[in-house]
Design brief:
alpha/beta; 3-stranded parallel sheet; 2 helices; 18% strand
């Protein structure tokens, strides 16, 4: 049995060695449509490949970030609030 429905939030880098963060998110979303995600990247949003475009409801946290910024971002996403 898959335990994917127990995951509330994914925290993924956009660029990873084997699968992109977006590919991991899409697979998790297929298993659990309610899963939320925060992507992180050192690249600017304009520098990301077109396949990494963020849809409405997906969030990008730019590196570098402070611990407090990360915690605040995760809390807001879990609560369903806007990051802006």
């Amino acid at each position: 049995k898959s335990r994917g429905e127990e995951i509330d939030l994914l925290f993924l880098d956009m660029i990873m060695p084997k699968l992109s963060g977006r590919a991991v998110y899409d697979a998790a979303k297929a298993s659990n449509p309610a899963v939320k995600c925060v992507f992180s990247s050192g690249y600017s949003p304009a520098g990301l490949h077109k396949n990494f475009i963020l849809d409405d409801g997906l969030h990008l946290l730019q590196k570098p970030y402070a611990r407090e910024t990360l915690l605040s971002c995760i809390r807001k996403v879990l609560d369903g609030a806007s990051l802006s």
